[in-house]
Design goal:
It is a multi-pass membrane protein. It comes from Pseudomonas piscis. InterPro entries: Poly_export (IPR049712), Poly_export_N (IPR003715), SLBB_dom (IPR054765). By secondary structure, this protein is α+β, with helices and mostly antiparallel strands. The chain folds into three domains: about 35 residues, no CATH class; about 110 residues, Outer membrane lipoprotein wza domain like (Outer membrane lipoprotein wza fold like), CATH 3.10.560.10; about 80 residues, wza like fold. It is about 35% helix and about 20% strand. The strands form three sheets. It has a five-stranded mixed β-sheet. Strands 2-1-5 form a three-stranded antiparallel β-sheet, with helices on one face. Strands 3-4 form a two-stranded antiparallel ribbon.
Length: about 260
C-alpha cells in the first residue's frame, strides 16, 4: 500500500512538470487568422507609435533659435530631445505635461501645435522618434534559439525565424502565429504557412514586415506533441518510477522484517 501511494505521488509530481501545450484556436478562427495574415503580407508597416522610454526630437519649424553664443551646438541639439516617462507622458515648454504613448509622431505634432497656437504666431513643428530602446521583436516556441532580435524597417517574419535558428522538426510550419499590438493596446493574432515563403515567384507568399514589439510564435505540430509525450512518459517517467519502486520495496520489506 505504501509503495502504491509513493508511486502515485511520483506520477502526480511528474505530471505537474510536463510542459503545457499551446492550443491552436478553433478551425473557423484559425482560418480567419490565416486570411488576416494573407491580407497583411506585402503591405507597408503602419505608422510607428510612441512608447514609454522613447526619446523624441521636437523642432519648431519657424522662429528664432537660441543664440550660439549662449549655447553650444551640442546643447542646442539636446534642447530638442524629450524622454517619454513610464506613465507615457513628457513635459514640453508652454504646453505642460503631454500624453504621448500610443500616438504616432504625426498625431503628437497635431496635439502640440494645438496647445501652442496661442503662444506662437506660427506653432508648426516636427516630431520624430530619435531613440527607441525597445526596438526588438520576440521569436519563441518551436525554434532552435528563442530570442529577442533587433528589428529594422526591412526585417521580415521569415528573417526573424532564421535569426532564431530556424524551425525545429517538431514545429508546426503551417500555423506560425504573429502577435501584433493594435491601437487599443491588445494583441491581434495573424497566422501564416511558412512553407509558402519558400516558394519563389508569384506562387509564393509576399514578405511580412515586422515592427517593434511583435511576437512570433511557432507552435508544436501534432507529431511534435506526440514526440514530447513519448519523451516525457516513456524515456523519463517510466525509468524514474521503476527506480523509485525498487528502492521503496526494499525499504518497506526491510522495515517489516
Amino acid at each position: 500500500m505504501k509503495r502504491l501511494l509513493l508511486i502515485s505521488s511520483v506520477l502526480m509530481l511528474c505530471a505537474c512538470s510536463i510542459p503545457a501545450k499551446v492550443e491552436l484556436p478553433p478551425g473557423q478562427d484559425l482560418e480567419q487568422g490565416h486570411r488576416a495574415g494573407e491580407a497583411l503580407a506585402g503591405k507597408p508597416l503602419p505608422p510607428q507609435r510612441i512608447r514609454p522610454g522613447d526619446t523624441l526630437r521636437i523642432v519648431r519649424n519657424t522662429g528664432e533659435a537660441p543664440s550660439i553664443s549662449a549655447f553650444t551646438a551640442n546643447s542646442i541639439y539636446e534642447l530638442t530631445l524629450f524622454t517619454v516617462l513610464n506613465d507615457g507622458t513628457f513635459s514640453y515648454p508652454y504646453a505642460g505635461q503631454i500624453k504621448a504613448a500610443g500616438l504616432t509622431p504625426q498625431q503628437l505634432t497635431q496635439v502640440l501645435e494645438s496647445k501652442l497656437k496661442n503662444v506662437y504666431q506660427d506653432s508648426a513643428l516636427t516630431v520624430n522618434i530619435n531613440q527607441a530602446p525597445g526596438n526588438t521583436v520576440f521569436v519563441g516556441g518551436s525554434v532552435r534559439n528563442p530570442a529577442s532580435l533587433p528589428v529594422t524597417v526591412t526585417t521580415t517574419l521569415e528573417q526573424a525565424i532564421v535569426g532564431a535558428g530556424g524551425l525545429l522538426s517538431v514545429g508546426d510550419s503551417r500555423n506560425i502565429a504573429l502577435l501584433r499590438e493594435g491601437e487599443d493596446g491588445r494583441y491581434k493574432t495573424y497566422f501564416f504557412d511558412y512553407r509558402k515563403f519558400m516558394i519563389a515567384g508569384n506562387a509564393g507568399a509576399a514578405p511580412v514586415l515586422l515592427q517593434r514589439g511583435d511576437v512570433v510564435f511557432v507552435p508544436k505540430s501534432s507529431v511534435g506533441n506526440g514526440i514530447e509525450w513519448v519523451d516525457v512518459y516513456l524515456n523519463q517517467l517510466i525509468p524514474f518510477t521503476k527506480s523509485i519502486g525498487i528502492g521503496a520495496s526494499y525499504e518497506i520489506n526491510r522495515q517489516s522484517n
